[in-house]
Design brief:
Blueprint lengths: L2 H5 L9 E10 L8 E8 L4 E6 L5 H9 L6 E11 L5 E3 L5 H7 L4 E4 L3 H4 L6 H13 L3 H14 L16 H13 L5 E5 L7 H18 L2 E5 L3 H7 L2 E6 L2 E7 H6 L4 H8 L16 H4 L4 H7 L4
Parallel strand pairs: 3-8, 3-9, 6-7, 7-8
Antiparallel strand pairs: 1-2, 1-4, 4-5, 9-10
The structure holds adenosine-5'-triphosphate and magnesium ion.
The site of adenosine-5'-triphosphate has 14 residues, from helix 2.
Length: 305
C-alpha cells in the first residue's frame, strides 16, 4: 500500500470495499491458512451475501474488515481497501487502532453473530445505542433521547424499552437492539454476520425490509453472511461462496443461484428444500474434492473467480 493510495479521493467507479488476496492465519502457525487468497468487492448501495459451510472462514473474513481479528490471528497477506468518501480510500489493514476506532461504528458497522456477547449486561440498551451517537455524532440530551427512541421503533421495539437491560429482553429483541446500534450512525458499509438466524420469520422479514430500505435511502453497502438461501434470494446483488477458507465461486445472484458452476455450490443448493417440500434433498457429496489438488483450481478452470 502506497501513501498516495491512502489519500486518493475515490471516483464513482471506486468500490466501497475491496478485498484483494486476503489471507488469515494463526500467529503461531503462519502456514495454516484459515482464510486463503480471498478477493471480492462491494459497490455502494449493493449487497454481497457470503455463504458456505460452518468453519469456511466467513466470520474471520468479516472480522478482518473491522480490524477485529482475535489477537491469536493475523492478516498474513492481502489488502482491504475502504472507500471512505471525502476521507479517501483507506487500507484498513494498515490503520492504527485509533484510526480504526473512528471508522468502526461510524462508517463501517457490524452486527455480530452472537448478540449476547456483544451487549453489556450492566448498561441499558438505550445507553448502548446512544454511545456511538455521542462518540461519533456528538448527540446529547433530548436530541440523543429522540434518536434512540426512533431507532428502537425502527426495529420494532417500543421506545420505552430504552431503559431495559439486555437480560430483560427476548433473544429476538436483543438482536434487534444490535441492529439499531449498528445503523445508528448510518454507516457507509454494514457487515451483518447471520443477523436474522435467531429471529422468527415475521421478525426476520421485517428486519430484512428495514435493511433494504436503509440500503437504498443511504446508499449503504452490505456484506451479509447467511446460511439461508431464501435470504440470499431476497436481498443479494452478488454472492460469494466459501469452502474451507477459499472462495470457490462468486458472481451475481442470478448466476450463482440459477446456474452454479462449482460442484460445491451445486451440492449446497441441492440441499436447500423447496417451498412445497417436494424436492428430493441430497447430502453434500465431496467426491469432487478428491479429484483436484486445489479447491480453487476447478473455479479457476471454469473462469468463476
Ligand atoms: N482464534 C482462532 N484461532 C484458531 N482458529 C480459529 C480462530 N477463530 C476461528 N478459527 C478457525 O477458523 C476457521 C474459520 O472460522 P469462522 O469463524 O470464520 O467460520 P464461519 O465460516 O464463520 O463458520 P460458522 O458458519 O460456523 O459461523 C474455523 O476452522 C475456525 O475453527
Ligand atoms: Mg461465523
Amino acid at each position: 500500500m502506497t501513501a498516495d493510495l491512502q489519500t486518493k479521493i475515490p471516483d464513482s467507479a471506486t468500490p466501497l470495499l475491496q478485498l484483494s488476496h486476503v489471507s488469515i492465519t494463526p500467529k503461531k502457525s503462519p502456514t495454516r491458512l484459515l482464510v486463503n487468497d480471498v478477493s471480492f468487492s462491494i459497490a455502494a448501495g449493493k449487497t454481497t451475501c457470503v455463504v458456505g459451510e460452518s468453519g469456511s472462514g466467513k466470520s474471520l473474513t468479516a472480522l478482518s474488515v473491522m480490524g477485529l481479528l482475535s489477537s491469536q490471528l493475523q492478516l498474513s497477506g492481502g489488502e482491504i481497501l475502504f472507500n471512505n468518501g471525502a476521507s479517501g480510500v483507506q487500507a484498513l489493514g494498515k490503520l492504527t487502532e485509533a484510526e480504526l476506532q473512528k471508522i468502526r461504528g461510524a462508517k463501517i458497522a457490524m452486527i455480530f453473530q452472537e448478540p449476547m456477547t456483544s451487549l453489556n449486561p450492566v448498561l441499558t440498551v438505550g445507553y448502548q445505542i446512544g454511545e456511538s451517537l455521542t462518540t461519533h455524532l456528538g448527540l446529547k440530551g433530548d436530541a440523543l433521547k429522540a434518536k434512540i427512541a426512533s431507532l428502537l421503533e425502527m426495529v420494532g421495539i417500543p421506545a420505552g424499552r430504552a431503559n431495559s437491560y439486555p437480560d430483560e429482553l427476548s433473544g429476538g429483541q436483543r438482536q434487534r437492539v444490535m441492529i439499531a446500534m449498528s445503523i445508528a450512525c448510518e454507516p457507509r458499509l454494514l457487515i451483518a454476520d447471520e443477523p436474522t438466524t435467531a429471529l422468527d420469520v415475521t421478525v426476520q422479514a421485517q428486519i430484512l425490509k428495514l435493511l433494504a430500505e436503509l440500503k437504498s435511502r443511504m446508499n449503504m453497502g452490505m456484506l451479509f453472511i447467511t446460511h439461508d438461501f431464501g435470504v440470499v434470494a431476497d436481498i443479494a446483488d452478488d454472492v460469494v461462496v466459501m469452502f474451507r477458507g477459499e472462495i470457490v465461486e462468486a458472481g451475481s445472484k442470478a448466476q450463482v443461484l440459477s446456474n452454479p458452476q462449482h460442484p460445491y455450490t451445486q451440492a449446497l443448493l441441492a440441499c436447500v428444500p423447496d417451498a412445497e417440500g417436494k424436492k428430493a434433498l441430497k447430502p453434500i457429496d465431496y467426491a469432487w474434492l478428491q479429484e483436484t489438488d486445489s479447491i480453487q483450481s476447478i473455479a479457476k478452470q471454469n473462469g468463476q473467480i
